[in-house]
Amino acid sequence: MLRTILRALGALLLAGVIASPAALAGKGETKLHWYGQAAWKIETPSGGVILIDPWLTVPTNPDKNSIAELGRVDYILVTHGHRDHVGDALEIAKKTGAVLVAPYGLQINMVSVLGYPKEQATAATGGNVGGTIDLPKAGAKVMIVNAIHGSELTAPQLPTPAPGQPAALASGNPVGYVIEIKGGPTIYHTGDTAAYEDMKLIPMYHHIDVMLACIGGHFTMDPNGAALAVQMVKPSHVIPMHFATFPLLAGTPEQFRAALAKHKLEGKLIVMKPGEDHAF
Predict the structure, then answer these.
(1) Residue 178: left (phi > 0), alpha (psi -120 to 50), or beta?
(2) DSSP helix/strand/coil, 166
């Protein structure tokens, strides 16, 4: 009988039914937390923490102690230079030691103009569209993709200029990020963008499990444009963001649902509120 039991256990091990501890370690949940606007925290199965466009003091965030409550942060990803996306990156970097991932020109200006710690913002994590950057502390890597938008530092990020002098500093290209998480989902943060035809290329590189899509309109694509983007990217799920923070960002999740329905895509929609978590 003992020989039979041992033989059966051996067969299970060979079949991979009984996984090793190392195999099991990569199968935890990935947790997304939305602060509001385009600001997200991603906690990976390895225990790593990534912040994207970290405006944690966004008015729609119900937790006014979000920065004080931050523990570990390994990386801060910034899509472009506008103040609602650079957000609280500098304060968080000094508090946590987080490494900056950003378009190269923006990264340089965040160091030289805003004072981001230079040892946390090197060429190793400053890239441009088409590049892929390893994020080993988070068990992930990120591909930089295009976004159709602008990227300038402006007041109050900059000192008040002298009369007749420029009040906006061009700061690299606007981008989105495709984050491939070991043992977890692949997440596409669109940044601020319009829908554009080259979005069709993204699923040729990666299947997107979760798309974080701006829908507010005026400065970015509206719900109709975002639905078209979903049709091109083909994600398993889409979560709307960058709406209702200001009156100009008038697109709503209800409008987005209706726009998705025209493409028979409404089943992909997950609606979150600022301050909420969702696990994948």
Answers:
(1) beta
(2) coil
Strand partners, 278: 32
H-helix or E-strand spanning residue 11: helix 2-15
pLDDT, tens digit only, all 280 positions of the chain:
444 433 443 443 333 333 333 333 345 899 999 999 999 999 999 999 999 999 999 999 999 999 999 999 999 999 999 999 999 999 999 999 999 999 999 999 999 999 999 999 999 999 999 999 999 999 999 999 999 999 999 999 998 888 998 899 999 999 999 999 999 999 999 999 999 999 999 999 999 999 999 999 999 999 999 999 999 999 999 999 999 999 999 999 999 999 999 999 999 999 999 999 999 9
CB distance 246 to 279 below 8 Å: no
Q: How far apart are CA 105 and CA 142, in angstroms?
A: 18
For residues 5 and 18, is the Cβ–Cβ distance under 8 A?
Answer: no
Q: Please name which of 147, 145, 278 lies closest in space to residue 206, comparing C-alpha atoms.
A: 145
Rounded Cα distance, 66 and 74, in Å: 16
Please count the residues of the chain.
Answer: 280
Of 206, 203, 224, whose CA–CA distance to 214 is shortest? 224
Cα–Cα distance measured from residue 247 to residue 4, given in angstroms and rounded to the nearest whole number: 71
